[in-house]
Amino acid sequence: MLTGLAVAMLLCPLAIAGPAVAQPKVNLEQAFADSLTAMPKEELAVSGGFYVPAYSSVAMSQGKLRVDFSVTLSVHNASETQALVVKRIAYFDTAGKQVESYLKAPVAIKPLATISIFIPTDDVRGGTGANFIVDWAAASEIAEPVVEALMVGGVANAHYAFISQGRPTRTAGKK
Q1: Most buried of 9, 12, 127, 165 (most Cβ within 10 A)?
Q2: CA nearest 57: which of 127, 149, 1?
Q3: φ and ψ of 29, to 5 deg
Q4: What confidence tens digit (pLDDT) does each residue in 30-39 have?
Q5: Dihedral sign (CA 55, 149, 96, 100)
Q6: Is 105 helix (H, G, I), strand (E, B) or coil?
Q7: Strands (E), 12-106
Q8: What CA–CA distance (Å, rounded) separates 109 from 32?
Q9: Distance CA 106, CA 139 (A)
Q10: Is it the case that residue 169 has pLDDT exceeding 70?
């Protein structure tokens, strides 16, 4: 019984710990090493960009309740044959202020591979009008990437999940 009491006393501080802290910034090169490849040696002749709406919080119940969501941004290389270079992934809040930048340098995604960014439920810096900008390039004409945000959250026994598709911000084409 004394051993059980000692263990309970040791674990007690964990039970009263503060709220969870948002995960540290993920190093995409390490987290998605299997999805990445070497940068193309050719000049990047084609480029494009996406605007992706995201919602880290949503007002419900006539604005009296705020529901927070986790957000997963996924960037899919839809090409079966060539690498997709992602030049920028930036996260903005409702006021248009940049909250986070996720790349130190461009990365090349293998054909049909995917990378993603995860924002936990307790990171509500983006607010109700959060969004991402994703800039990409390729050495030659390429299937347009698929860029989406998945939001997941809930309140009480109700759980919600929805997807927001990226919208091109400029025409993909030769420079």
Answers
A1: 127
A2: 127
A3: -60, -35
A4: 889 899 999 9
A5: positive
A6: coil
A7: 36-37, 46-53, 57-60, 65-76, 84-92, 98-101
A8: 9
A9: 14
A10: yes
Q: Residue 28: phi, psi to the nearest 5? A: -60, -35
Matching residue, tokens 């992706």: 52
Q: Which two tokens stand for residue 171?
A: 């025409």
> Distance between CA 84 and CA 103 in Å, rounded?
15
pLDDT single digits (tens) 93-137: 999 999 999 999 999 999 999 999 999 999 999 999 999 999 999
Residues present in the chain in total: 175
pTM of the predicted model, to two decimals?
0.81
Q: Which residue has the tokens 């996924």?
A: 74
Q: What is the DSSP string of 20-37?
A: PPPPPPP-HHHHTGGGEE
Q: Assign 3-state DSSP to the chain and report helix, strand, coil percentages, each to 5.
A: 15, 45, 40
pLDDT in tens, 47-86: 999 999 999 988 877 777 888 999 999 999 999 999 999 9
- 76, 145 in Cβ contact below 8 A? yes
Side chain identity at residue 127, one-letter code:
G
Give the closest residue to 76 by CA, choosing from 92, 52, 53: 52
